[in-house]
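Structure, all two chains, one model.
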Amino acid sequence: MNVLRLALRSIQGNAFRSGVVALCALLIAGFVLSTTLIMRGAEMSLQLARERLGADVVVVPRGAEAQVEGALLMGHPTAIWMPDRALEQIRAVRGVAVASPQLYLSTLHNAACCAVSDMFLVAYDPATDFTVQPWLKERLGGGLRLGEGVGGTHVFVPDGEQNIKLYGYFITLKATLEPTGTGLDQSMFLTYETARDMARISQTQAAQPLELPEHQISAVLVKVTPGTHPDDVALRIVHNIPDVTPITSTSLFRSYRQQITGLQGVLVVVLAATWILAVLLIGLVFSMAANERRRELGALRALGATRRFIFESLLSEAGILALIGGTLGLGLAALALYLFRNWIVASLGLPFLLPDAPTLVALIGSGLALALGSVSLAAFLPALHISRLDPAVAMRE
Amino acid sequence: VGVGGVLAFSRRRETQRALAIMGALLGAFMILMPVSLIGVCPGDDMLCNMIMRPTLVFSGVLVIAASLYTLLRAWSPEPPEELV
């Protein structure tokens, strides 16, 4: 009889004991994968949102920083305004290469167009924009015309329709942006011209007209000149222009990053406690199992089995149980995270995007390795103790 | 739940096999109902989409996995009856 066959027989012989060890491995692997995925998914979302905006500095009305971050990151529609003369003042600041205005608007609640109840509308100036325009030129070979828009991954044309109807105005969806796991996924980008046209048509066609204040903008995206530090430009904007707040790209979404760090700390503590308890429980189960099988293992030794054989068979048993439990735990955690991702986003109030396939495979591999290592570690001492026992003593006691 | 309850009390391998197949089919229906047969509400941020649909799909996967495991265990031939 070889080591593996003995281990498998032993697993089959005591289904309850094996089940408890496999369950511990399942918990460790599943918990590690889900917490790592949530943390990495949130960080990746923040990174993608920052890259999508592409600005070195975002200038918003004073006191509206949280609102803008909430709109861009979680898709909470917001209506914030500042006079458009701020745009010229920002352009005059030393170190500013390009400054492009944006207008934040919102749809009515439960718009039919979108997979989400509130859609965030962003109107941009095609002449100066460096966020959407380069992407459009690369994908569509040109910018947006009057009545056209591009949407995030949650924006779609309703079944049986050819256009999206907003405020009584028909918008042609030209393209869909890649998912970021943030509020940008439920945003629609359109030109200033289209936004103004929509406001005009809505006066007669919509139940509630779209109000577009004259000479007002919501935010200004700034790209700095090469060699200039965004912090210096932000400082000059603070000194020279009243009633606006510049947010540099490194400080953007700071409150959300702090929230992620806080959550990470709590999860690490819970994870460590779970790991310690699981390892102790597995160790206890293996000690009891080893004591229970003293006679059996003593008889094996008496029949000629070496200490190494006994030790290896016990560790193989632990390894097989860790692999079964770990695989189940990882599979269930990945499936649950994928299925409940929208609920997790809504509950935690954080953006979330599942990582790409190679990262996911690496994380699954790490989870399995941890489960295997933990169970082997817990089983090591009982296996060593029982394998060193004299066969005569083991059989007599 | 009904199939699981009957399965817990059944001793004959043939019955276990039949019940396991029935359980797997019910699990498949559990997944297909919200995904393609009936569907749920269109909004991604609505409760039926955030909780009901994933719960049904997740439970369906568990039911199928448990049924396949039972089927695998019940596949070996019936042990001979003990002689009295």
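The radius of gyration of chain A is 30 Å.
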